[in-house]
Amino acid sequence: ISAIVGCIALALMETLSDYGTVAHFGVQTFTTGIYKALYSMDDLVAAGQLATMLLTIVFVVAIIERLERNRLRFDNGNSMRELPRYILHGKKACAAAIVCFLPVLFGFLIPISSLISLHIIDGHNILSKSYVLLTMNSLSLSGTTSCVATLFALIIVYASRLAPGWLSGAAVELSHLGYAVPGSVIAIGMMFIITSADYIIDLSSRQILGVTTGMLLTGSVTALVMAYTSRFIAVSLNSLETNLSQIPRSIDNAARTLGSGQFAMLRRIHLPLIRSGLLTATLMVFVDVMKELPATLLLRPFNFDTLATQAYRLASDERLAQAATPSLVLVGFGLLPVVVLSRQIMATRIGV
Predict the structure, then answer these.
(1) pTM, to two decimals
(2) Secondary structure tally for the chain: helices H, strands E
(3) How many Å apart are CA 352 and CA 344, to the nearest integer?
(4) 75-111: b or e for each residue (b if 16 or more CB lie within 10 Å)?
């Protein structure tokens, strides 16, 4: 029951943070209200109030999910042993196959078939100059954020391993909460921060140098990377925590006995052992940033589009055939971590 409640809580948090689907179908939610308050009414205060209400609901759901997760108990035995297999026959085998196939059918095969057919009918040329630019924008943002998020996650996890305490524990918990916060809420919070920072920088520059700096951070790629990192660092954190926890602390003690320092121990021992975790963390953040829409819409620079914003814009104009082109590219990138994780799971099951 605890696992089921935890899964429901995660699904609720994902649903609360969604913007593209509810906006396309005209459903009024907190995320659509935040976007309308900011761009239709030009009211940052109202957007902040809606974001605060949404954040309160998300925190309640996140607390419930964490409490249920803490009730779980896990077997600490050898994770590399082959899992037992139960052979089903007759009606049970048929029913199990149908139940397992339905999510794949309705969640992937039917949508992807529709996208492919729409693209064939009236899709854009994926090799055109505009789509190459969109892809490069998405790749640059995703690549930069994935590296930054993985680096900060590694620092937090390694600091928690070397010096466990309330400070490192608080850093880990706060980082985990980032993924529960919707992208629109993070974007609104980031707006308050960067506009205040721009004001302070401009005021100081005018007083000291007599030169106005204008808006350095507002509407910049830097603000986007900051928002992405604060939201998706939890993805990297989960992967690195799992991999680093599998390394016995006796190895650390032996390395210290042989005279290795903290950074030498990380470079020579830990990093080689968690290479798969680093790759998984980087790929997961990469794909999450590629498809992130609310934060991108609210914080992107002028005339800066990504594959996600292009798909949303075309779908909003009811140009669904053209929207299928960037959507298919996003699906292609989204399959990368699925392939990598599937290979890792299969290797674990056969004891490789």
Answers:
(1) 0.79
(2) 17, 0
(3) 9
(4) eeeeeeeeeeeeeeeeeeeeeeeeeeeeeeeeeeeee
